[in-house]
Specification:
heterodimer, A: about 170 residues, alpha+beta, 2 domains, four-stranded antiparallel sheet, 4 strands, about 15% strand, rod-shaped, B: about 475 residues, mainly alpha, Formate dehydrogenase/DMSO reductase fold, globular
């Protein structure tokens, strides 16, 4: 069932941040904020927790490092020890550069993949077009309307007072 | 909570304003829509005469390269001037040259992001594109040097029917394979991730049609959600943090192709930092050449300003001086260590058959950057353009000098020979420039060559006096 959203458009990023802080202070939950670029101070205003992406980076990096070192050791020592200029089979130091490269490669790819999955970004995904122009020159705050638990009048009033240029009620598909 | 309550009361105390019928765009909106417009407009207009002329030259050069490479692959690498003594020359020179060019892109987009250098925002996208095209050009040379490029997959460790006979993980040449592939992949991911919000902007501007569909697919459904932005900034910081040691490792590994051998002139621990400084120097030279061309061809003087050129010139002054210092160190160490072969190699470099190239290199890489102490030179577009060409020439010569002068006079006088490139080798070099410029010219016509969202974030931060980065 499509949800209904109250979407307020803003022309100034400062007013937007203020508005988000204000509606949250009045107990409204902010569904999302839309902007053409990241806005300074909005994370705090929206109460967004720090992203957990770094853990993915760490996990993928450690796994790739271990796997590569193991593979290099397996190839050069166990599977087919080859005498190259009399160097020891287990030339650990010489294994470092490739282990490092594989660590960086896996960590980078895993983090990017995790970001895309978490943000539901994929070719053909439909953007939530609740407010036009938010990829160009304006900002929008969306509150999700809930039956019996949403004072539309109060929400409208708060948003207008915070400097919204336009408020619409719209049906989204999420 | 208490503070928030107070704020809520204060806001509620204001009288309710009527919703304006037709909102007047604010100053901030003017700024933001102008940025969108300035970057997106060239993508929907017909190319100018300057672009068409440049494109024609680039494609012609590319075709020369295609011809030379096809001939070489069909005939064998005997069509090059290589011999038993000088087994690496133009091919590996070009490889190291192009890898080095790529490094400036990563430096601008990753290291300057970590250092929160706001000025990078209008040049990082094109610098990253340059990285990718340069790495493509670089990868071409080891590939065609194999002689049988259709067996290139032998360099990857995969289970095979020859034993399996694995690759040799102790060899710097194999480290190169991994370094270049990782560098290429991470650079591509970083570049594409950076463009997603801009694709969304272009999608929303475009009228329904093929363009809108393509931008729509490329934008992955980006809708400007701040929850996504917040994560996105974390992702960019992580990728920058990964790319920074990566870029240093890549050219360090390239330098180890030489430094781990026992050849006089190559066998030195100075090589990794020396190569990284040289790579950044040559990369910034190429970025400067390209950006001066682009701002003129695409009329983007508002975004690629004298301040950018000035900052890039300062980086070249620093790295050029480091390169000059490395040259001096090499000679000093050759004299100090008392190794007759080492000394002879360096004396030969400065006085032997390639001396004229050596002194041109010194003039371009060690002497010329000292002109950049003058702010008049740093802020003069013609002077910087001429200088950036000199950097490109000087840094190409540096790789040639290192490779060929060390090889052509090694331990046994009986194997002393001379090396001269054939027309096919020169044609292949011309072709790699053609490939690079063809890609770059297509890029500035088809993709947002300035990071729209980063410039917007920068302009908001500047307007509000925030110290935050893009």
């Amino acid at each position: 069932m499509p949800s209904t959203y109250l979407v307020a458009t803003f022309a100034e990023s400062r007013a937007l941040v203020e508005a988000v802080a204000t509606v949250r202070a009045h107990g409204f939950k902010v569904y999302d904020v839309y902007s053409p670029c990241p806005i300074h101070g909005l994370d705090e205003a929206m109460g967004i927790r720090r992203s957990r992406l770094p853990y993915i980076t760490l996990a993928a990096g450690v796994l790739a490092l271990a796997a590569t070192v193991w593979f290099e050791f397996y190839v050069a020592v166990w599977d087919w020890p080859l005498n190259v200029g009399g160097k020891p089979d287990n030339s650990t130091l010489a294994f470092v550069p490739i282990a490092f490269e594989m660590t960086v490669l896996a960590a980078g790819l895993a983090t990017a993949k995790a970001f895309l999955l978490r943000s539901r970004l994929f070719p053909g995904a439909a953007p939530a077009s609740l407010a036009p122009g938010v990829t160009d020159d304006r900002y929008a705050v969306a509150l999700r309307w809930r039956p019996n638990a949403f004072d539309t009048g109060a929400a409208r009033q708060l948003l207008m007072q915070s400097g919204a240029t336009r408020i619409i009620q719209t049906a989204g598909d999420q | 909570m208490r503070v928030a309550d107070q704020r809520a009361d204060r806001v509620l105390a204001f009288p309710v304003r009527r919703q304006p019928a037709d909102p007047v765009p604010s100053d901030e909106q003017h700024t933001l829509s102008r940025i969108t417009d300035d970057v997106a407009r060239p993508l929907s207009t017909r190319p100018g005469a300057g672009w068409l002329a440049a494109f024609a030259v680039a494609v012609a050069a590319l075709l020369v390269g295609v011809g030379c490479v096809s001939y070489e692959i069909a005939t064998g690498i005997g069509v090059w001037g290589l011999n038993r003594t000088v087994g690496w020359a133009f091919d590996i020179t070009n490889f190291v040259f192009w890898v080095g060019i790529g490094h400036a892109g990563t430096l601008i987009s990753a290291i300057l992001l970590l250092f929160r250098q706001q000025w990078r925002t209008s040049i990082n996208r094109s610098a990253e594109a340059m990285t990718i095209f340069a790495v493509i050009c670089a990868a071409l040379f080891p590939l065609i040097h194999m002689g049988r490029p259709w067996l290139a997959y032998y360099v990857f460790p995969y289970p095979n029917s020859r034993g399996p006979l694995w690759v040799n993980f102790r060899s710097p040449l194999l480290w190169d394979v991994f370094a270049i592939n990782t560098y290429m992949t991470i650079s591509l991911v970083f570049w594409y991730i950076g463009m997603i919000p801009d694709f969304a902007t272009l999608r929303d501007r475009a009228a329904a049609g093929v363009k809108k569909t393509i931008y729509g697919l490329a934008s992955l459904g980006w809708d400007g959600s701040h929850r996504t932005w917040s994560r996105y900034e974390t992702l960019n910081t992580i990728l920058a943090g990964l790319a920074t040691p990566l870029v240093i490792s890549v050219h360090s590994i390239v330098s180890m192709d030489f430094a781990t051998s026992i050849l006089p002139g190559w066998h030195t621990t100075l090589f990794p930092p020396y190569f990284v400084a040289g790579a950044v120097y040559s990369g910034f030279g190429m970025v400067t050449t390209l950006l001066i061309l682009t701002r003129t061809l695409m009329r983007l003087e508002r975004y690629i300003t004298l301040r950018h050129l000035d900052a890039m010139a300062k980086v070249m002054l620093l790295t050029g001086s480091l390169v000059g210092f490395s040259y001096a160190t090499e000679f000093y160490v050759a004299w100090l260590n008392g190794n007759a072969y080492e000394r002879a190699t360096f004396v030969m470099r400065a006085t032997g058959p390639y001396a004229s190239l050596f002194w041109t290199m010194v003039a371009c890489n060690a002497v010329a950057p000292q002109l950049l102490w003058s702010s008049r030179v740093r802020r003069s577009v013609p002077a910087l353009f001429a200088f950036s060409i000199a950097v490109n020439i000087g840094m190409w010569l540096e790789r040639f000098i290192i490779i060929v002068t060390s090889l052509h006079r090694s331990y046994l006088p009986s194997s002393w020979v001379s090396y001269r490139p054939t027309a096919i080798e020169v044609g292949t070099l011309v072709g790699s420039f053609g490939l690079f410029f063809t890609c770059f010219l297509l890029f500035i016509r088809l993709l947002p060559m300035i990071a729209i969202w980063e410039v917007k974030a920068g302009s908001l931060a500047a307007a509000h006096g925030d110290a935050g980065d893009a």
